[in-house]
């Protein structure tokens, strides 16, 4: 029964993938890049599955246990899927709050209906999900904003080395980045497209937003809040206001301040004192675990809002450019450092083009909310993740959007279009 179901599901998925691929292969402009980028993603998936991380093996192991529960007692599995505890035979696991690790156990248990407990197949499903969602975002941008380079999205989501590495195989990042790209694509279609979203697209948007939130709720909360700000700005524009950029900036600032206040009132976890204390605790724990390795140091950091603000500029810089190539001494640190130098060059190029009046043609409101998301998440990561390896992985949630913004200016547009992007 299990084998038959797996064969049927995989045959159906292959047909869906072929149905999705066929019209896009001949699409003007970016169709020629579809197979090369898909091949690159599959190569990264094969490498990631051949040498899986401990985190991937852990998720597959517990996911297989949940799958066994699904087959033996579907009602018990449903109770597990809707809760924060897993009790089955000798397995006893209890989580508190929004655990993305426990959520991934549940995801793997569903993927196992087709994957039959194989980490290779689970990783293939998540890799293809991320690829398809990223490609659809690129197509949406090309359709809605034809004067901007689609290649900026392709580079950020499908070509940049660390993004490609961390979103291949069975990883939380593949689900996080893929669901985020899909949500952004649907929201842009809603706000800037000429056609209304159909009912099934609205249902898909809600499901993908829930998936994105569960994959890593704090990161997702920032992106969803940024998109809510974009909705507010577009609503103001539809009503005949907010034509000037400073009005959009002011509205977004008011929404940000109001949102922080409301969230703090709703949950004590997000009050300033609790937030700063928890952030400092995370920093100290990871700092201690990183002994003997390159790490970010804030000797004067204190659990106060003033101290966090004072350290924020350095934290943002550290999140984007650490490690340097000469830090660490190992090959992985060297590769990460060289990538950071490339990122720094891209960002400086973008700043230079912007100062010369060549910032690109994306709508200002969209640039504003995505840039705010990148800055806030970079500050959060830089302050709470002194371990450079952890930082390199976590910042994958913001890098695609930052690269999209940094490569949409006129100078980059010329180079990307020469490459057929």
Explain this structure to me?
This protein is mostly helical and 421 residues long. It contains 19 helices and two strands. A two-stranded antiparallel sheet has the order 1-2. The longest helix is centred in the N-terminal third of the chain and has 26 residues.
Would you kindly provide a brief summary of this structure?
The protein is an all-alpha fold and about 425 residues long. The chain is built from 19 helices and two strands.
Mean pLDDT: 89
Radius of gyration: 22 Å
Overall outline? globular
What spatial order of strands do you see in the largest sheet?
1-2
Tell me the number of helical segments per DSSP (H or I, 4 or more residues long): 19
Label the structural class. mainly alpha
Instruction: Please estimate the helix content.
Output: over 70%
Distance between the termini: 46 Å
Low-confidence stretches: none
Largest sheet: 2 strands, antiparallel
The fraction of residues in strands falls at under 5%
Number of strands: 2
SSE order, as H and E? HHHHEEHHHHHHHHHHHHHHH
Provide key terms for this protein.
421 residues, two-stranded antiparallel ribbon, 19 helices, 74% helix, 2% strand
């Amino acid at each position: 029964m299990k084998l038959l179901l797996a064969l049927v599901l995989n045959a159906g998925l292959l047909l869906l993938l072929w149905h999705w691929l066929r019209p896009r292969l001949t699409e003007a402009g970016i169709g020629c890049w579809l197979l090369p980028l898909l091949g690159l993603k599959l190569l990264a998936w094969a490498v990631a599955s051949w040498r899986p991380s401990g985190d991937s093996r852990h998720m597959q192991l517990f996911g297989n246990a949940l799958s066994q529960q699904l087959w033996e007692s579907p009602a018990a599995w449903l109770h597990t899927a809707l809760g924060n505890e897993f009790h089955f035979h000798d397995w006893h696991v209890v989580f508190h709050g929004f655990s993305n690790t426990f959520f991934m156990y549940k995801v793997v248990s569903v993927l196992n209906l087709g994957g039959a407990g194989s980490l290779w197949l689970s990783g293939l499903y998540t890799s293809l999900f991320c690829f398809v969602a990223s490609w659809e975002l690129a197509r949406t941008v090309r359709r809605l904003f034809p004067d901007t380079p689609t290649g900026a999205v392709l580079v950020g989501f499908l070509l940049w080395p660390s993004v490609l590495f961390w979103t291949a195989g069975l990883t939380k990042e593949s689900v996080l980045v893929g669901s985020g790209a899909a949500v952004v694509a649907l929201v842009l279609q809603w706000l800037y497209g000429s056609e209304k979203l159909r009912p099934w697209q609205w249902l898909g948007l809600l499901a993908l937003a829930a998936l994105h939130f569960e994959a890593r709720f704090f990161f997702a909360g920032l992106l969803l809040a940024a998109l809510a700000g974009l909705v507010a700005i577009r609503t103001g524009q539809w009503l005949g206001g907010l034509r000037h950029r400073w009005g959009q900036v002011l509205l977004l600032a008011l929404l940000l301040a109001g949102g922080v206040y409301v969230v703090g009132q709703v949950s004590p976890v997000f009050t300033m004192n609790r937030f700063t204390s928890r952030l400092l605790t995370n920093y100290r724990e990871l700092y201690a675990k990183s002994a003997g390795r390159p790490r970010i140091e804030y000797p004067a950091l204190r659990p106060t809002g003033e101290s966090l603000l004072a350290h924020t500029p350095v934290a943002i810089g550290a999140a984007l450019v650490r490690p340097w190539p000469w830090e660490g001494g190992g090959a992985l640190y060297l590769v990460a450092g060289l990538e950071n130098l490339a990122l720094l060059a891209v960002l400086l190029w973008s700043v230079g083009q912007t100062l010369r009046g060549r910032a690109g043609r994306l709508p200002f409101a969209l640039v504003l909310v995505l840039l705010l998301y990148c800055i806030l998440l970079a500050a959060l990561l830089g302050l709470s993740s002194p371990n450079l390896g952890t930082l390199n992985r976590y910042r994958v949630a913001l890098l695609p959007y930052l690269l999209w913004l940094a490569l949409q200016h006129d100078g980059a547009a010329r180079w990307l279009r020469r490459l057929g992007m």
